[in-house]
Design a protein that fits this description.
mainly alpha, 9 helices, 312 residues, Methane Monooxygenase Hydroxylase, Chain G, domain 1, 70% helix
């Protein structure tokens, strides 16, 4: 579990149970039961999740509860201490809504990469078309989340852990949008490969795709659970994906050298392999952002074994 943030922020975080994850949070809050299908479960359960699901503590002078109307808005004649408490309550509410929106985005992106992987594995142009069509939803939500972050920075001027929460969401939001774009690129490669059924997907590429998808899930779960150890595991898994990518490229080079008629298909798989490797890199970025959120230290570009960094 993440260490207490009291030394950094002046207030402690509420600890989470060891089995906490995105699905369990929604079951606990909403009484929903998980579906047998992972992709469907991810969307259907988060759709019923209300703000505040991440379990951040409100801290002194902050309740963290949503309120309707403007009953908590500060009045000009209200004492300064009361106005500060009311503004803190509004900040907490805005951050909870922002985190809820990010969870919705992450679920949509997970479904996209699952479908893109299936389209590539089974050479299904119809599934690939679904991935491409759903990209507009991610783009619209990405802009909406960014605007919400900028509004919070301008209106509330957050500090300490609230500033890190806002900055982390802003960065994760960008990585999720890039992952969605890469899923679209993989789907486009699958559409092009539909004409080359005789060229089977390299076994190590399929293994690499599964590893990259697992990294995305692990990094997002680390964000929800504020789990630094899980975030570090994502960095370790990235080494395996890099190795698999090099092996796949080597196999494809050999195919192009010995079977010139398969050059076009091999190049499509070559591109797909690079896209999968980039998805794993973005998952690593998200994991590094989790370390920054919890420990307040930037973990990027750490090339040595350090207590807080992720091996690059």
């Amino acid at each position: 579990m993440p260490r207490c943030l009291a030394s950094l922020t002046g207030r402690a975080q509420t600890p989470r149970s060891a089995g906490c994850n995105r699905s369990n949070i929604i079951v606990e809050r909403c009484g929903c039961l998980p579906s047998s299908n992972n992709a469907t479960r991810s969307v259907s359960m988060i759709a019923f999740c209300r703000p505040g699901s991440l379990g951040w503590s409100a801290g002194p002078g902050r309740t963290g509860e949503s309120s309707d109307g403007d009953e908590d808005a500060p009045h000009p004649d209200q004492p300064i201490k009361g106005r500060t408490r009311a503004m803190s309550k509004h900040l907490e509410r805005d951050l909870e809504e922002l985190e809820h929106e990010l969870l919705m985005q992450s679920s949509h992106v997970e479904v996209m990469i699952e479908k893109a992987s299936r389209a590539l594995r089974e050479l299904r142009p119809d599934v690939a078309a679904e991935v491409i069509a759903s990209d507009s939803v991610v783009n619209a939500r990405e802009v909406r989340i960014e605007e919400h972050c900028l509004k919070i920075l301008a209106l509330h001027q957050p500090v300490a852990v609230d500033l890190r929460r806002t900055a982390t969401i802003l960065k994760i939001n960008n990585d999720l949008e890039r992952i969605a774009d890469l899923a679209v690129n993989i789907a486009e490669r699958a559409q092009s490969l539909a004409e080359h059924h005789e060229f089977m997907i390299p076994p190590q590429l399929e293994r690499m795709t599964r590893a990259a998808i697992a990294m995305v899930r692990m990094s997002l779960d680390a964000f929800v659970e504020q789990d630094v150890q899980r975030a570090r595991q994502v960095g370790q898994a990235d080494d395996e994906v890099d190795t698999l990518n090099r092996n796949v490229i080597g196999e494809l080079y050999e195919v192009m050298r010995t079977r010139p008629e398969m050059v076009e298909a091999a190049l499509h798989f070559f591109s797909a392999s690079r896209h999968v490797e980039r998805i794993a890199d973005h998952a690593t970025n998200i994991a590094e952002d989790v370390i920054y959120l919890v420990e307040g230290e930037i973990a990027r570009h750490r090339h040595d074994h350090t207590p807080t960094g992720i091996d690059c």
